[in-house]
Amino acid sequence: xxxxxxxxxxxxxxxxxxxxxxxxxxxxxxxxxxxxxxxxxxxxxxxxxxxxxxxxxxxxxxxxxxxxxxxxxxxxxxxxxxxxxxxxxxxxxxxxxxxxxxxxxxxxxxxxxxxxxxxxxxxxxxxxxxxxxxxxxxxxxxxxxxxxxxxxxxxxxxxxxxxxxxxxxxxxxxxxxxxxxxxxxxxxxxxxxxxxxxxxxxxxxxxxxxxxxxxxxxxxxxxxxxxxxxxxxxxxxxxxxxxxxxxxxxxxxxxxxxxxxxxxxxxxxxxxxxxxxxxxxxxxxxxxxxxxxxxxxxxxxxxxxxxxxxxxxxxxxxxxxxxxxxxxxxxxxxxxxxxxxxxxxxxxxxxx
Length: 352
Prior knowledge:
The chain has 352 residues and is an alpha/beta fold. Helix content is 23%, strand content 27%.
């Protein structure tokens, strides 16, 4: 029989986060049941429950930055055992048969329904129901999408690695961040602070970019070799053509042209933060005369996610967080929207 577990979620669009009870499926042969200890708050949780991204099947329990211990495993599970520290991220299933899945890019699954998101999508395991996320006490997930978490990491601070971490680690690796490369990170927020930490640990000359002069010390404290104040026109002129990769964590519509000028020959401006349409025209000669590129990236594959977590264990990298109880989530949402968090909220799931 399915298990009833405590959770918090939204019962309708724009309704507050409040206590709920949800059903978790029986553990199938390839499943892992996880007792959730910590769950990060991602801005996409807020967009989803507030209806910013279209209709949702309410009630919905958000959360895809999940850390906990294995409570039970199915008969065919080989990667995990009871008691292991594990994580669950943005997706919980892919078809496993399409070209992208077979190439190891399961987060780009081209199956009939694409990759199955951790919350808010039709649940193929329980017809008529929908996936529910990590703002809960337990979750049941196919073992392929359950990740080993290094025991040396702070558990609460490791939760945002499952979304914020992999979202910036994947493009840094894909575009070759490392020794001999100069990497810029635009925006020192939830995504950006992780990108600075990763780029520095990968051995790249790392430059944090912010429009706020008061964030210079903050950028350097995260591991940036330099901090470029983008509102300083002279500093921007001096930085032209110095960058191999720029990771843009800016969350919305913005003018890319000033950043394209910073790219050297063959440089790439990678968008990971903005998820809506851009309205500022790109001055094409900026791209053409230096073989520059504009690219995009979205989370990462299961292989990359485990690689990222192992890398974090080796370098003791976690997110900077504010740990909260479940009864503070609504206030935390308002603070995220206002930009008043340094850098991620994480829920203590024992308070649910």
